[in-house]
Amino acid sequence: MTLDTMTLETAYLSLDSEFYAMSTPEPLDEPYLISFNPKAAELIGLDTDTATDPRFVALLNCTFVPKGTRPFSMCYAGHQFGHFAGRLGDGRAMNLGSINGWHLQTKGSGETLYARMADGRAALPSSIREYLMSEAMFHLGIPTTRALGIIGSQTKIIRSPIERAAIVMRLSPSWVRFGTFQYFHYFKEYDKLKSLTEYVITESYPHLQHDEDRYFKFFCEVVDRTATLIAQWQGVGFIHGVMNTDNMSIAGLTLDYGPYAMLDDFQYGFVSNKSDRAGRYSYAEQPNVSYWNLTMLSQALSTLIDKQKMQQKLDDYGAFIYPDAYTLVMCKKMGLFRRLEEDKELIEALLRALQDAYVDYTIFFRTLCRYDGERSPLYDIAMNPVAIHNWLNLYDERLSKETHTQIQRQEAMLKTNPKYVLKNYMLQDAITLAKRGDFTLVETLLYLAAHPYDELPEFEHFAKETPEEHKNITFSCSS
Ligand code: AMP
Ligand code: MG
Fold first, then answer.
1. Phi and psi (nearest 5°) for 319?
2. Catalytic site residues?
């Protein structure tokens, strides 16, 4: 498919007009291509040589309009930092339409009905961050939205400091958020809440469409998908940074990349969002927050689904659905094929050891992949090897109860524990260069993002410990 033959559909517009607002994109000045993502192009069947078609920049800038395009922004509400914020909505995102089950959305193409005094723009740094990290998460096997490309421009936007505006074209099977349900619940639009639920079931849970008990089962599956998602975040060391209910995907995807981080040294309480003084969205809190957010979703669904049944499911989430999902992720990371009662304690001991050891989370697991009883490689990467030593005693004992061979364990672990993750300092370097018109590091990081488990000798430096002065960088939301 070329840009000429690309035809979009807009099923969301068949919902009541309160669900969205039609939007008019305001193109950026002197737009230029920063990056085209061929892997995302494949998803929608777009020819990869579109990268060199000048109309690709125009597509992202909304001056080239594919057939069927009807730009609209979605209405939603949400709890921000624990407080209900009323109507939010896509303040700077516009949906153009969908193709192959992927909804195309531009982020930063101007004010919408929901812009609330803000400018509808997205700065170059945060756009590059979203573009690269969504790709990295996908290749780490974590459910996420994707991105087709990114453009920069000469349009100045007021940030501190002044930035240039960019646009990322994001793709997702669903842009519906917990907050979309909250909007219709809080404004007592129960018929619309029901239409939304039917819409989401058809789009994201189609196997439930003809089930009599589909609303409750839908809720259960959202809970299950959220458990898997958050367990994977914890496993890979991803901190989202703004787990407000408007940033929680009803389809269980990682959504809205803002002040996120990958752990440098393991720090259980690490907070990546500079504005989050209370640490509500710290790494350690993500599982609790996901439970809280699901509780808010259950309240929003309380006119449709029996509250007690939902509460039971939430109780199960806390008691075993999330803990089991997390244990599974961590056992895989440790190369354990069997599931034993004692594994939860082994994981808890590991987290304590990592905290005490001052060791890079990613490097620790990658080094553990090659563990054969010789401990020095693991001691070498920790500031405090004693903590690692004590834990390895437990690990050795646990490994003795496995039936798989060491080689099998090592092979499985190397496919589970990434060598390359995108740390914030790498992204900062890519942004600094991009501001000077050099996009080579964006391309390199896009490549690394797609090869997290490979040994890439030419990129060995990206697998090293984060330089001390660049550890634990934090970000603010306003970008
Ligand atoms: P976020 O924290 O980026 O998910 O954004 C929270 C809310 O603020 C959403 O409703 C966004 O659409 C909106 N928002 C953030 N930045 C802007 C902006 N520059 N212009 C308009 N709306 C924005
Ligand atoms: Mg958001």
1. -80, -45
2. 246
